[in-house]
Design goal:
38% of the residues lie in helices and 16% in strands. The protein is built from 18 helices and 14 strands. Residues 7-13, 35-36, 38, 40-42, 45-46, 78, 80, 82-85, 104-109, 125, 128-130, 132-133, 136, 179, 181, 194-196, 199, 230-232, 258, 363, 387-390 line the site of cobalamin.
Length: 438
């Protein structure tokens, strides 16, 4: 059979004012361009897990959302799903099916709402895909009727024996970053998190040798790739983190990853990061205020516990030559309208080399979604295209939705205008210069 893997990249936002700002603010545009062109790692893993004997092709949906012609020539097309693009994905699936192509869908959104997806796909996969996907292929070969397949009914994915993603299928498409995965899940349970914690209950780190093998597989097709680890939280286990750094340092690549603030607690790991090629850590700080963070993380109130000392921890990391992309969530419960200035001040005081502000977003399947639904605070239920992290879909409890929207716009200008970006970056560089001089 001919099997297609159809990725839908790009960034999404509905708010027209934000789009206008986004198109003009240098700091925002830079980040959007960087992230808009990442390949879909989930699909590359599925390609690697496909039983032998099939012809495989990777497609990117065009930026005008048209479906590449080649996808219509496939017997089976796999489509991945995030909430923000799900309606586009369903429209694509409908068109492919109307043309006689079988469609399998999986990923974060359909894992939460499989019945919704079953109206548009032949085979809907709930959970991690590697061990279920071969069954979807076999069902297609037998022209079996549509169904929902659940990873829980198949052997669990053994993180130590993941196949290398099929980077070779990417051809020479002009991506500026590539993803490699070193871990799945996260030990923390933040109420708003819609990442792989929704697919895997437990946090699992891959053997370092497997990560290195994947980097080599990538380097076999791209000479000097910039890496982004597609992890929720890379450096939970500090000893493993140091081992990872030592193993990848010889490749002399540059990379970026997501982790939590506890990385700042381990001086030895901090020392290993830059020589290993780490250039930036994205860290969910969420809010500089402990009172707002209280209760956000359900397991041990991790986020609130880290509020004291947040600024020092950021500086400690950056002083090791690794910039921090500090992420803040606007509109958390108890967050009042003065939060915008507080966060802006924190970003300049630290200073944060990079900063990301997003609106609290109730993604389906999260505890936050259930809470807001029970409280009757969802304002755009079912409008999944608004799950962009930039559109407001709920009634905040300590400000109005308009205040939140306007605050977000205000912050975009405050943080992402050329002088603002420059001032923060100059601040980090001058700390580095002072260290060198000392
Ligand atoms: C890389 C990435 C991107 C890339 C995606 C590139 C691409 N074409 O896929 C880019 C930069 C384009 C991107 C964009 C956006 N992203 Co993004 N992104 C990520 C990130 C960092 C990693 C995702 C990843 O690679 N995971 C690893 C792979 C292996 O896991 P996976 O995709 O889930 O795949 C597994 C299973 O889901 C399943 N599976 C997946 N697809 C399929 C299909 C079939 C047929 C089967 C059988 C199984 C299956 O099997 C796979 C292997 O087990 C996550 C955050 C994180 N740390 O996870 C956010 C994340 C996925 N993004 C998010 C968001 C909100 C966005 C944007 C809406 C932001 C915006 N405003 O534009 C856009 C959406 C754009 C779009 N096209 O949909 C949210 C999604 C939440 C949700 N539930 O929808 C996340 C979780 C981050 C967050 N803040 O919460 N993103």
């Amino acid at each position: 059979m001919k099997i297609g893997f159809l990725a839908m990249s790009g960034v999404r936002a509905c708010d027209p004012e934000l789009l206008r700002l986004g198109l003009t603010l240098p700091g925002f545009v830079q980040r959007s361009q960087v992230i808009a062109s990442l390949p879909s790692l989930g699909l590359l893993y599925l390609a690697a897990a496909t039983p032998p004997g099939h012809e495989l092709e990777y497609f990117e949906a065009e930026s005008d959302r048209s479906v590449p012609d080649g996808a219509f020539a496939c017997d089976l097309v796999a489509i991945s799903s995030f909430s923000a693009q799900i309606k586009e994905a369903y429209a694509v699936a409908d068109r492919l099916r109307a043309a006689g192509v079988r469609v399998a869908m999986g990923g974060l959104h359909v894992s939460v709402l499989p019945e919704e997806a079953a109206r548009h796909a032949d085979y809907v996969v709930v959970g991690e895909g590697e061990n279920v996907w071969p069954e979807a292929v076999r069902l297609t070969e037998r022209a079996a009727p549509p169904c929902i397949l659940r990873a829980a009914d198949f052997p669990p994915v053994d993180i130590a024996s993941l196949p290398a993603p099929r980077y070779d299928l990417l051809g020479d498409r002009p991506y500026n970053r590539f993803t490699v995965q070193t871990s799945r899940g996260c030990p923390w349970r933040c109420s708003f998190c819609a990442s792989t914690v929704m697919l895997t209950g437990n946090y699992r780190q891959r053997p370092v040798a497997g990560v290195v093998r994947d980097i080599e597989a990538l380097m076999a097709v791209r000479e000097r790739p910039f890496l982004e680890f597609a992890d929720d939280n890379t450096f939970v286990n500090k000893r493993w983190g140091r081992e990872l750094c030592r193993a990848i340092a010889p490749y002399r690549l540059k990379w970026f990853t997501e982790t939590d603030l506890s990385v700042a607690d381990d001086p030895a790991l901090l020392r290993e990061l830059r020589p290993a090629g780490c250039r930036q850590l994205l860290i969910g700080l969420e809010s500089p205020r402990a009172s707002v963070l209280h209760g956000v993380e359900a397991r041990s109130d991790f986020k609130a516990r880290r509020a004291t000392g947040m600024l020092d921890a950021v500086r400690r990391i950056q002083d090791h030559g690794v910039t921090v992309n500090g992420c803040f969530v606007l509109g958390l419960d108890h967050d009042t309208a003065d939060c915008f200035e507080r966060i802006r001040d924190f970003a300049f005081e630290a200073p944060l080399y990079e900063v990301q502000v997003t609106a609290l977003t109730p993604f389906p399947g999260t505890p936050m979604y259930r809470q807001l639904e029970e409280q009757g605070r969802l304002t755009h239920a079912g409008a999944w295209e608004r799950c962009t992290l930039f559109d407001i879909n709920f009634r905040p409890d300590s400000m109005t939705a308009d205040e939140l929207r306007e605050g977000l716009h205000w912050m975009m200008e405050e943080l992402y205008s050329a002088p603002a970006v420059e001032a923060r970056r100059r601040g980090v560089l001058s700390r580095w210069r002072k260290q060198c001089a000392a």
